[in-house]
Structures are given as structure tokens and as C-alpha cells.
Amino acid sequence: MSQASRSALLDCTKGLACAAIVWHHLAFYGPMSDVARAEIPELIDWLYEYARMAVQIFLVLGGYLAAASLAPQGQARFDAPWLRIGRRFVRLIVPYAVALVVVMLVSEVVRPWFDHESISAEPDLWQLITHALLLQGIAGEESLSAGVWYVSIDFQLFALTVLLLVLARGLSHRPAAWPPGWTLSQLLVVLLAAASLLGFNRDADWDDWALYFFGAYGLGMMACWAVQAPKRAAAWAWSLLMVGLVMLALALQWRDRIALAGATALALVAAMRSPSLAQWQGWRPLGRLGQISYSVFLVHFAVCLLMNAVVHYFWPDSVVAALWGMPIAFVLSIAAGYGLYERVERPVSTWQVALRWQAGLVGAGMLAAAVAALH
Question: pTM, whole model, 2 decimals?
Fold first, then answer.
């Protein structure tokens, strides 16, 4: 694999961000965190409020890797854009559908003896269909699991980027025409990222759409082009452009998430242009977590839900049980994510496999709703 697609530094960064997201959800969804808060209130509050911002790191890394794969020199280097988009959909949807089936099964198992707001209501057919098509947020449907909104946004961002690059290639075949040293693809990415940072991202009504998040994603793409730049002056120019965009965005409205996205993008440029850091071998367990982070992200909510239910049922007011239960849930989430990665995400999936799991997701949801109705 290329350095961009399999860098120990990037894997370790994804591993840290993945751990932060899991711990955020452990703090956000009780009741273990509610009980543990009596002993460690500052830590629980910090995880609740700030660990969720690790999503911005994933957005920046997503843009970086998309640019490295699709247009490392600023121009699309792929054919068959719809095939690219389709492959991305299949890669995302198969482990996603499996994880949602697991979440629904766990929810039905614990529902009779664990009455908590973190358990979703029995899904209806339309809700299941929108989830299978990654349209639940746009359709205004309640999510069946924590964080599944991000899968939809990731797919939207990738598809938008592919189409933007294809549009630019169709409009111009001169690599350095827009302005000197830039491609039209790069200009369009910068303009769309600016529109997101200065406009769309300031309006929460857009948060089900890629345009809301394209600022962070676009910063990741710019970071990739800064890293790939053959001359130091060009890398500095990209870095200063990112600084200018982020500072202007924050001057209009301060947003911690945008500050973190900008800092992440600039840190990527500095690290990946440093030979010693770019070739750093990392800490293997953390890098491995980064490699399986998507599967961990998908399945951890089911594990945390089950652990919360068990601890609450047997030791509802025990601080010790809560303090042990949260790290155990974290470790089990990684183990479940590893299993999902090895069994489902890692094997190459096809449209036939994706369609079967989409149908399985809808069928499992309807069966769970029917069983619940009988009770």
C-alpha cells in the first residue's frame, strides 16, 4: 500500500480518535456513567463534552486519504466515477448493516429488563429502508445506533468529492491554469471548503448534509496536497491558506470543532513532511486499533448497551461496578470490532453481499418489531 493509505502515524491517529469516540459514548449513554460520575465527575464531564470532537479528526483524515487516493497531484486519476462511488457504498454498507442487526438484537434482548432512553424504539419499515440506504438523517428518522449518522456523511463526502473532481476534469485539461500552480479541482475544493467553513457549517439545519462537514474534509484534502507538494514554498502556501480559512471562519463564529479540524490538518502537514515522523513505526496496538476503527465505531454501541444493561440489572447503584464496567465495555468493544473487521469488513464484498445484508437489516428489524408487538 501507499504511504498515504497505510501510514503508522495515520493509523495511530485514527486509533486515538476511535478510542475517544467510544469513551464519549460510554460517558454519554448511562447508566454506568451516571453512577461513575459520583467518583470521577471531571473525567466523565470531559468525555461527555469534548471527546466527541474526535469526529473532526476522522473528517480531516477522511479528506486527506480521499485526496491521496483520488487526486494526489490535484487532478482526478481515476475512471468510472460511479463505479468508485458504488465501491465505497458497498465497503461502508456491509459491516454497517451487520452492526445494525447486532444492535437491534441486543436491544430486543435487554428491552424487557432494561428500561432506558438509550434503547431505540422498535423500528418501522421506512426507518429500516432509510438506514439501509444511508438516508436516515436526511429523512428525519431516529438513528438505530450511536454514530451511524457519520457513515451517511462519510459516503456523501466521498461521493461529492468524486463528482467534484470529475466535473473539474471535464471543464479543464490544463493542470496549472487555475491560478498558477493550481488545478481547477483544487480551486473547486478550496471554494467549497470555504463555503462550508464560512456558511453551511454555521447553520445546524445543514448537519445531515455533506456541505456542513466539507470544511474539515476539504482541509484534509488541502493537507494532502501540501504534503505532496514538491517544493517547500508550495507546502507553505497551502498551509497559510488553511490558516487563513480557519482564522476567518473562527472570526465569524468561534467553533471548537473547526479549531480542532484546522489544528489537525496543519499537524498532518508538519508530521507527514517530516521524514522521521512520516516513517515512524508507531505503537502497534494503537495502530491496529486505527486499522479496525471503522468496525469498532460501528459495533461498540451494541457492546456498551449490553454492558450497561447487565451492570444496571445486577449492581444498579454500585460505583465499583460502574468503574469496572466502563473499561471492560471498552475492551469488549475493541474485541467485537476486531471480529467484525476480520469476518466482514476485511473480506472483499460485492453488490450481491451488500444487497443481502441490506435485505437482512430490513428483515431483522421487521422481525424484531413483530416479536415486540406480540409481547
Answer: 0.93
